[in-house]
Structure of glycine oxidase:
Amino acid sequence: MSQEITIIGAGIIGLVTAFELTERGKTVRLIDAGTSNYSTAPDGTPLYPAASHYAGGMLAPIAEVQFQQDALFPLMTASADAYPSLMERLSRATDLPTGYDTTGTLIVAADRADAEHLERTRTYYQDLNRPTSSITPSQARALEPLLAPRIAGAVSIPSDHQLYPRLMVRALKDALVRRGVTFSTERVADPDAGDIICTGLGATLLGEYPLRPVYGDILRLRTPRPLLKHVVRGYVNSRPVYLIPRPDGELCIGATSREDQRTLPAIDGVHQLLRDAIRLVPAIEECELLEANVGARPGTPDDLPIFGHRTRADGTRQLVSTGYFRHGILLAALAGKIGAEVACEADIPPEMAACNPARFEA
């Protein structure tokens, strides 16, 4: 690629890729239409806001493990391992906060049946050599005193961290502007435009990949006082829910996942999130609701990202880095690092082989 590299898409994948390119001395141009609401292009193509704006931001290679996703596990671990270096270098490039928090994660069970489910999940973590510690409910409440007194089980994962995506995006943009990166809000309709494609669901314009929007309801609450220090994930009647404390005193609640095309917050989802969160932390009833919203995550049939080269109409190659689905924030450190290396003529590493776009050609 040339000394100047154009990235289409300024979500967290595009921004981290741009940051890593500037670390390597490259001149970068970022193009993103910057849509803040769901809308359609003049030709009827749906446009989606950046998924990172509505993401929870959990850096949880252990707690985010899903059954039968073996090819994804090493990517999650490698990216979590890459985050300390990324955050240290970003903190030198900007004065803005990133919302990076290494306090750790607790997973709790609402009742005895949920505790059995949690124990099966913990055993699965152990089978994958993922370190976790079972703790008693009283030990969990010593760490988080506002947990419900009747929780039936708990697991501690000190190595699962979080960041606040909205602060992270702001810090990345500030660092990139300081480094001379140019931003454009033009709407790109040509699939062959740009050197690196990081457009999430916008990559459907390429017409080659089976990306689909997977919606997730997410709530922002204002708390009367700090309620939690750790990320608290829980099972309530086998349903997952997560509660994420933010550095400004807010609390984020999420975990729903649906593919029903409702582009506004779903009443059943909002009700479920509040009911289950209150079951785990009753003091949430004292909070104020700041925002109920929904994000659209770019899902693939196998839940793996799409990373690799595609061939343009003129025979030249374009790098595609998209489809990070539920793990966009977690995988951003790895995606940005490898994306920058490949853009600088390095080979695609073996661990990304399963993400090759060619797997969809059949």
